[in-house]
Amino acid sequence: MSAPVTGPVPTLTATPRVLSIAGTDPTGGAGIQADLKSIAANGGYGMAVVTALVAQNTRGVRSVHTPPTGFLREQLDAVSDDVETDAVKIGMLGAPGIIAEVSGWLRRVRPPIVVLDPVMVATSGDRLLTPEAEQALRDLLPLAGLVTPNVPELAVLAGAGPARDWDEVVRQALEVSGRWGVRVLAKGGHLAGDEVSDALVDAGATDPVRRLDAPRVHTSSTHGTGCSLSSAVATWQVVTGDWFASIDRSKRWLTESLRHGEELNVGQGHGPVSHFAGLWERGGRDTSTGDEWWQRIDGLRRATDADPFLTGLADGTLAGKAFRYYLAQDAHYLEGYAGVLSRLGQLADDPVERAFWVAAATACVTTESNLHRTWLGASERPAPGPATHEYLGHLRQAVETGYGQGVAAVLPCYWMYADIGHRLAPRAAGNPYAEWIATYADPLFQYATQQARSITDRVAGAASPPLREEMWRAFERSAQLEREFFAAAL
Ligand SMILES: Nc1ncnc2c1ncn2[C@@H]1O[C@H](COP(=O)(O)OP(=O)(O)O)[C@@H](O)[C@H]1O
Ligand SMILES: Cc1ncc(COP(=O)(O)OP(=O)(O)O)c(N)n1
């Protein structure tokens, strides 16, 4: 049976390609190593150009080796000559020559999003920048879309002593923002209190100070928080195009990563945050459960492909009468399927999933009525056949057993149609069924299928082994019933 193909148009966002220009941390908690983890954890593709090789660990910095500036330029050009970069995050820039090189490259390449973390002092208290470099860094500020200093760095930029309270942080951030005409993410990590505030400060905006609060995580694993946050914001900015929303998403992710940092048991000083903790907790450690199920029904899919209904659709030889019977059954099916999808909307805890199922149910009703208007006459309404009854009975039972079983049961209807539509559309061009097949090759339907797959993966990833087994059985039975539904038309 066919899944709904209409509904709100989603934004199709490609994976953000984010370049980190920063120094290294061989213990993996800060610098480039942290940036790459942060970019990946927040959904981006990370790239890295090394500005400094830093011998450091969770206890402190031992020494810094900066590459010749010519070699830095070669690294930068190697990226920009080949890859279109969506966002750049700049971290440690050890010396004035390095800053000049990066500044020249930014002016030539003009990346659309630049986040500058003006790394000057590590959590350990070590200075990471020479005094001349501090001055050169100020000149880089106007090239950035967002600058993310911590309390001591903000003080250096403002030419003042470190702020002792939040009001002073905001005053200094307004001063820096106004003087260099740049947005500042003022960070309160170095202040005391049970809440950690950050604020997006833009002296030129109508709402110049937009604050975000989070509970303070009581942990010693705070190494690399600034690197991780700025990379996450750069990544999210590609997706949202809204600095405040990007900071909000990044801060929530960072707070969760901070909570799990100590579990990593890395180092004896300030340990790293656990960049992938949220992903692991929500099943990200497993390979896609859906992909595994899809492989397991490989034989059934091949057999469905070889059935006369599908071969007839593909080459246009399917009898019109059989197709109309199929469509009439599909209309009955969609009525019932809409009810199952809307029940999933009621059962979903996650607001994004709830919205997806509710929209899918609405789309289903629209598809059903379009089906009648476009393909079926008012009189063509045979009663639901046994295959339709059986499939709907299975779906209703699955969703009443639980959310996981319901999600797994509705998936084959999306996935098998998306797959068939994708493969058959080029072959069916010009035949009487081409238009109908094209609806399932449509990017919108492919996207909805991807979302249904992601939801299934998330739910299966968090499920107990017995529940996952029940989900698999619900999925497998639906796949069999899909084949029987096609066959019933003949
Ligand atoms: N203990 C903590 N609990 C929750 N959030 C924190 C904590 N420490 C820092 N943060 C957050 O981490 C980010 C980096 O902050 P900060 O420590 O001020 O910068 P840096 O790492 O550059 O020194 C900010 O969003 C800040 O609010
Ligand atoms: C190579 C390198 N870059 C940056 C830092 C400091 O990073 P930050 O995220 O500000 O981390 P903490 O100050 O919170 O450790 C670094 N140590 N090394």
From TrEMBL:
What is catalysed by this protein? 4-amino-5-hydroxymethyl-2-methylpyrimidine + ATP = 4-amino-2-methyl-5-(phosphooxymethyl)pyrimidine + ADP + H(+); 4-amino-2-methyl-5-(phosphooxymethyl)pyrimidine + ATP = 4-amino-2-methyl-5-(diphosphooxymethyl)pyrimidine + ADP
Sorted keywords for this record are:
Kinase, Thiamine biosynthesis, Transferase
Q: Does the keyword Transferase apply?
A: yes
Q: Which GO terms describe its molecular function?
A: kinase activity
Report the Pfam families cross-referenced here.
Phos_pyr_kin, TENA_THI-4
Domain Thiaminase-2/PQQC intervals: 308-489
Q: Which InterPro entries does this one have?
A: Haem_Oase-like_multi-hlx, HMP/HMP-P_kinase_dom, PM/HMP-P_kinase-1, Ribokinase-like, Thiaminase-2/PQQC
Question: What region holds the Pyridoxamine kinase/Phosphomethylpyrimidine kinase domain?
Answer: 25-273
Pathway in which the depicted protein is active: Cofactor biosynthesis; thiamine diphosphate biosynthesis; 4-amino-2-methyl-5-diphosphomethylpyrimidine from 5-amino-1-(5-phospho-D-ribosyl)imidazole: step 3/3
Keyword Transferase listed: yes
Its biological function? Answer: Catalyzes the phosphorylation of hydroxymethylpyrimidine phosphate (HMP-P) to HMP-PP, and of HMP to HMP-P.
What is the protein name given in its UniProt record?
A: Bifunctional hydroxymethylpyrimidine kinase/phosphomethylpyrimidine kinase
Q: Which organism is it from?
A: Kineosporia mesophila
Lineage summary: Bacteria, Bacillati, Actinomycetota, Actinomycetes, Kineosporiales
